[in-house]
Amino acid sequence: REEITAEQLREVVKTFERLRDQLRDLPVAARPASSAIYTDSEAAAALSPEFADAVAVASESRAVLVSDDLFLKELATNEWSVKGVASFDLLAYAVMRGQASAEVFEAATIQMVRWRFRGIPIRVATILLGLQRSGYEIDKDVGVLLDVLADSETESGSAVRVAVGVLRDLWLSSVVPHKLLRVTDALLEALARNRAPVILDHVNAGIAVAMRLVPQFEKAIRRAIDQFGQRRYRDEIVP
Question: How far, in whole angstroms, is CA 99 from its chain's centroid?
């Protein structure tokens, strides 16, 4: 349980009021009772009534289905040619179109990760916002984002790309040195937590590309990576 301030509560209320107003403006579609989806015995066994309604409406109106259930979304596409999109991708598209604030989107991403939603993609901007809000300390928000990078289910290449992007922006900013080194170590620790030592070689390679125009920073970051590796693996035999 977390305590929230009066200002945070007002912002939550405003958010729900905006959602309420948007929902009131949405068109209402009639349930297509004659749809073949309702007479398909296999579909009836596989789908909940709510999802069957959503697929039927999307199919009849040629609309895009918004769903975060990967299995059911693929089923709708393969069986009834209904195109689907995840709600998170829809929000990201709204940010790209300028219909939603990038900062609000990243803040919502952090909150969803804290609520233990799975499969939420985090970006360089997500971690940078968390760090800015924490004063470049490893607080709860930043900690859960680093846990996503550390998760063995997170593809290593993606984790490295995000970490390199964060390191690039941090080292080119005006973060005080002791906090900069602390955050650098925390990022590297997250990457190395469930992975082989070779992950640091990939980070070094990424930094060499990302910082090639500022060689003094490239050298400093790679030195910090090497020092982290020596501390972490000093008692291990690195293959």
Answer: 19
- What is the percent of the chain where pLDDT is above 70? 92
User: Token pair for residue 40?
Assistant: 């398909």
What is the Cα–Cα distance from 55 to 9, expressed in whole angstroms?
36
pLDDT at residue 236, rounded to an integer: 58
Provide DSSP, 147-202.
HHHH-TTS-HHHHHHHHHHHHHHHHTTT--HHHHHHHHHHHHHHHHTTS-TTHHHH
Q: Which of 131, 205, 116 is nearest to 169 (CA)?
A: 131
0.85 cut: is pTM over it? no
Instruction: Mention every residue, 6+ apart, whose C-beta is less than 8 A from residue 211.
Output: 168, 171, 217, 218, 221
For residue 94, the Cα-to-chain-centroid distance in whole angstroms is 15
**Are the CB atoms for 180 and 171 separated by under 8 Å?**
yes
- Residue of 180, 194, 192 whose CA lies nearest to 231: 192
The 10s digit of each residue's pLDDT in 173-186 is 999 999 999 999 99
What's CA 187's distance to the chain center, in Å?
16
Q: What is the CA radius of gyration of the chain?
A: 23
Rounded to 5 degrees, what are φ and ψ at 225? -65, -45
Containing H/E element for 85?
strand 84-85
Six-digit token pair at 52? Answer: 């069957």
Q: Which residues contact 143 (CB under 8 A, 6 or more apart)?
A: none
Q: Which of 173, 224, 216 is nearest to 200 (CA)?
A: 224
Fill in the amino acid letter for 38: Y
